[in-house]
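Dock 4AD; give full complex structure.
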Amino acid sequence: MKHTDIKEVFSKSDFIGQTVTVCGWVRTARNSKNVAFIELNDGTSLKHLQIVVDKASDIDFEPALHLGTSLKVTGEVVEARQGSVEINAASIDVLGTCPPEYPLQKKRHTLEFLRTMPHLRGRTNTFNAVQRVRSIMAAALHEYFQSKNFVYINTPLITGSDCEGAGEMFQVTTIGYSKEYDNEEEYYSSDFFGRKAGLSVSGQLEGEVAAMAMGKIYTFGPSFRAENSNTPKHLAEFWHVEPEIAFAELPDIIEEAESMIKFVIRRVLDTCPDEMKFFDAHFEKGLIERLEDLISHDFATVTYTEAIKLLQESGEKFVYPVEWGCDLQTEHERYIAEKVFKKAVFVTDYPKEIKSFYMKQNADGKTVAAVDLLVPGVGEIIGGSEREADYEKLTAAMTERGMNLELYSDYLDLRRYGSVPHGGFGLGFERLIMYVTGVSNIRDVILYPRTVGNVR
Ligand code: 4AD
């Protein structure tokens, strides 16, 4: 269907005086004495395009005034107030009618209400803006890595190993367990893959394989977590960006993470000014200033041990007690980012007991070369580390955790054949979108959120 995007009509002044055809859905309509006004949106722009209908013309405008109706409109582009443009309609075709029970009425609906209709909420300003920002951020991430010689790889979604070792894998099976099997082993060996399989929680282990051949790689795909966390920042299926870098130590990983975040935020601020003003006005006052400030300063860095001290000396009453060795909870992460540093902060060198087996063991024997990036408002958005590149140390850590080394023989081979210092991190894409837009629930930054008890 030949037509012009509404975004284009707004952005090019040479359309003025031209006849164009636009398509879209009716967002609002007003029927005055001599003219009717229709606000049309096709999803390419946050701003609606006003269609002016002269009621004396022979256009059958009545059916075009209903909210949600889809239209094709041809007419002349003319200047409107405040330097904007509108269209004087010469013809209107109703592509699809929309009955009065259309759930998206003119009033502002709550995000909770809109979550009940994932198939329609994309037509609201909020979700439209979120998805456009999301798309720009995805493109910016690719551009960032591609421009720095990273190779984009696709790691498997079905896997035999639980990368994070936290037992949060969804099982992939074609048969249910039954009394027919004497034990679990027999059951798994009868299943599709002949062994226990699940949906990958991270592409890191395969990412390391690729980095040991291509030097610098990144993945960008879904990861799955069967954690029973019904919180505003957990999804069972989230999009995961995982760069992995050979010939790199922890400070190199931290530098890469900071420069990636700054690149993506700069791109959104430059490319989506209307959307960002919208989020600033409706979701977080001062959002644009906060982001500008973030990217013009160095991120802070603090060790886990120092962070624990800061929390203990804070005088704050936390729900979860703070002592060396504890996992940092969201309340702790947010306190460090929001109250202590008031900006993005890397926390490094966590106790080995609370981190994964693959992390490089520090000389103190107690901590590993891990790093999390915490940001105000959200908490952790990145988790990463330098990897243990020493075969003996790695196998010792795995044995200590009771892991079956045979299942990881490919991974261990990387430490036998030309092992190098290397590391990487995982960015939770939706968490970064939350941070950039000020939208506080992760369910509102993905088209179809999958969470405990919810798959639509
Ligand atoms: O800290 P995580 O578990 O680290 C890993 O998976 C490593 N293998 C990454 C690596 O080094 N390549 O997860 C990384 C990030 C978290 O910081 C968080 O932003 C996001 O993934 N994440 C989630 N996002 C939404 N919902 C969940 N349930 C998430 N779990 C992790």
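Observed: The two ends are 31 Å apart (CA to CA).
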